[in-house]
Design goal:
It is a single chain. The chain is mostly beta strands and 153 residues long. Among the domains are: 72 residues, Immunoglobulin-like, CATH 2.60.40; 30 residues, no CATH class. Helices cover 12% and strands 40% of the residues. It has two helices and ten strands. It has a four-stranded mixed sheet with strand order 1-7-6-3, with no helix packed on it. Strands 2-5-4 form a three-stranded antiparallel sheet, with no helix packed on it. The relative contact order is 0.15.
């Protein structure tokens, strides 16, 4: 038991920074960007899934992280000397409280709701009638009680 524990501890120590947990999660809305300030000049930028998020340098010590599609991806940033500056998970989606997605079978449409819900700019029209995405759904009429037939006991 002690031998297995020592081997595990040695393996973690030998792995060094690569075995350390990622920094805090960076949340970005879809089609939004977040500025990331760094402590040193940028050298190398690695994004595991560029379909989810993209990164663009603003200057030598600032990056713009751009949310492209819902999901999560890893982001690693190294300085010119090879020092790791950022090791984080970027989560894209769900951070904009005024946007929602409606799914009807295979059809999907995005709505921007501030103050009324309307089709989001740049989205293909839904297969549903236009009034369904722009107007609230009316409430069902109130039920009227029906008296029981007379003579049944």
């Amino acid at each position: 038991m002690l031998k297995a524990l020592l081997i595990s501890a040695f393996a973690i120590a030998a792995a060094g920074p690569a075995a350390q947990a990622a920094d805090e999660v960076l949340r970005v809305g879809g089609d939004r960007l977040v500025e990331l300030a760094l402590t040193d000049d940028v050298g190398t930028i690695l994004v595991a899934n560029p379909a989810v998020a993209d990164v663009a340098p603003v200057d030598q010590r600032r990056l713009a992280v751009i949310g492209k599609a819902p999901g999560s991806t890893s982001l690693l940033v190294f300085s010119k000397s090879g020092e790791r500056l950022v090791n984080t998970t970027v989560v894209v989606g769900g951070t904009d409280p005024w946007t929602m997605t409606v799914h009807r079978g295979a059809a999907e449409s995005s709505l921007t709701c501030a103050p009324r819900c309307v089709s989001a700019a740049g989205q293909a029209p839904s297969s549903a009638p236009a009034s369904a995405s722009a107007a609230p759904v009316p409430a069902a009429p109130a039920a009227t009680p029906v008296p029981a037939p007379e003579g049944d006991s």
